[in-house]
Model the fold of this input.
Amino acid sequence: MSTQKDVPHYTGHRQRLRQRFVATGGDGMPDYEILELLLSQAIPRADVKPVAKALLTRFGSMGEVMSAPLADLQEVKGVGEAAAVALKVVQAAGLRLAHQHVLNKNVIGSWDSLIDYCKAAMGYEKIEQLRVLFLDRKNILIADEVQQRGTVDHTPLYPRQVLKRALDLNASALILVHNHPSGDPTPSPDDIEMTKEVRDAADKLGIALHDHVIIGKNTHASFKSMGLL
Done:
């Protein structure tokens, strides 16, 4: 026969967290409590508050927790495969939702949503990657593809490869997006030179390069806004 002593001490805490989440949708709840609620689905029989706080201590923020590789997440005490996968599923679902806000829409008219999506997709990456957004004549996003992955401070770009893909898709315009893992979105001389090469090659094919956006952590830089395009 069970007694009050048999009930884990965290059971009431979890119930109170769920009730607050239902009442507020999570507004006002600190990151570690949101992580607690998520982890409790994958770790049903343990106190997950220390695990949630350890994750934030290790990685620094909610975004960095969600963006961390599976293997790195599992290095945190208390995080097994099930919990790590649960975190990555939430990240994937968030990215898919953000992507749906921009796909098949005029990206010029949805610029803030586009930037939010790119920050979520690339802002916490540990290596540089180059994403190319392909647009039709009405600036509708028809494809969003990662063309290259590089190192912590360099991504190779092959204009011929990018433009061949644009022709395959019958795209009329491009937006280049890449991340700076350092967090500083300031364009490098190589970034500027590479952008000019793509612009000049695209012009010859009647394809417009609308912008090149560099994504840093919680910030970004636009070549067009800086007068570099």
